[in-house]
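Subject: Predicted fold for Putative transcriptional regulatory protein, 519 residues

User T.R. writes:
Posting the sequence so we have a shared reference for the thread.
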Amino acid sequence: MTLSSASATDKKTGQSVRHSRNGCIVCKDRRRRCTEERPSCARCTADNRACKYILRLTWEDESRERGIKHGRGGQFEKQVVNPVPSTDLINQRGWNVPQHETRQFLNTYTTAIVGNSLRQVVHFGPLRVKARSVGPPYGIGDNCLGFTDGLLFQYYESQICYNLTLVNDSSNGFRYIVLPAAHSYKSVRHSVLAAGALHLSLDRPSNSLDNYVVALRHKQKALGYLRNEIASLNGKPSSHILISMVMLCLFDITDNCQVSWSMHLKAASDMLQIMDTASKDPLIASFVSKFFATRDAMSRSACGAASKFRHMSAVDSQEIDKSWGCSFELMNIISSITDLSRRKSDFKTSEQKDHSSKILELESRLESIIQTMPPLGSLVARNEAQLLSQTAALIQNATNIYFCTALHSAGPRTHLIQSLIGSQIDLIGNLQSLRSTHLWSIFVTSLYAHVDEDRLFFIDQFDRLENTRPAIGPAVTARAIVEIVWKRRDLDADSNDKNASLSDWERYVRPLSEGLSLA
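User M.O. replies:
I've generated the structure tokens; pasting them so everyone works from the same file.
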């Protein structure tokens, strides 16, 4: 065989060719092997082309949907540690009908009658044993993650991103905005790793202490890098700082509903106010504003506080948002109810008529509201579309309950409230899974359940929410408030309360709800 024929044979049999993994996109489009020099490779320089490098992330579920191998999985097999919980744990996520023989409502003490602070009324046991001290933070390489941190990153991508939204498509900012930013900015990276370790400590109780210490270390590093990045900007904020604030806020909410979560909300509001249009990334600004506006509207509805976040990007007011589960118009109505329900006795006589007309106008908006489904791609699962529609109806019914009780002093035995609670029970019972966005609706509805059977149902729903990791901290606190409200209202049923002029919401709910997160 001649040399030329041997060479031809090698080509036909697939002679191994070394490919460039980190080359520029120009060489990749031209199907040339890139020499990988920065900022311009030798091939682009020689051909007088504009060399450009870009980070492209490909998700495993996208490759699976396209029917192709993910990454280099088609060339060789690797043994990878799978951070996803085992099948038997996943199967336990479904709601099993509980046995109610152990439920009872006789734990009433004098502390259930007096005192306004929830911390005075309820003894909160720790969600986990916390370490007395946290060791010094450890470092992460600029270009790669260690084995443990890699697992935390995978766990965030495969589990947490999915549970933080109702529709897991390209609109999921926790995946398509947060993760790319984590590759470039240390404050975002460590906040993501902190969230991964915190949720892992809740999923795996046997190693909860070790994982929780890791979570605190990464949170400490994220805060340190965030301070340095803010100080180095010289008054010119960057959008990635807002992403870090979102993740740190999410961490504090999940971690036993720490009241410090509202500090991140206020800081993000201040930063958006001083940022000019040129320095804002539209996608990041929209993602951040939706995240904080939702938590501000839902949470202050319980305590009646003034709004801390007023920055919202332009959105379709009737279209249901894929993350929070209702339209912007309905979210705006919830905020307006809170504003109008603040102590009516503080108004002067001349302002009473204006206040009443605003209530009538708001009632008209609520009765005529129409929520429309957003466009859903072909890759969106049918059960996700159904969950989105059911969630929108659930929040709308809860808004009606909130309106009647906060502005019209309706009580648990009001016929309309009883009818709405029955509808809510039917809707919740048909939900295959609960997410953190359902917490507000369940909280508002359960407050006005007065039949024991209904109360048992809602206790079971709080149990389900506590199995939803992003909602575990707020769900524990919200459940404690609901149980105290039930006790106080039952004890006050036959008494002449000196605060009878206040609405039911002002009398029982608001004194206990300071700092509560409901989203």
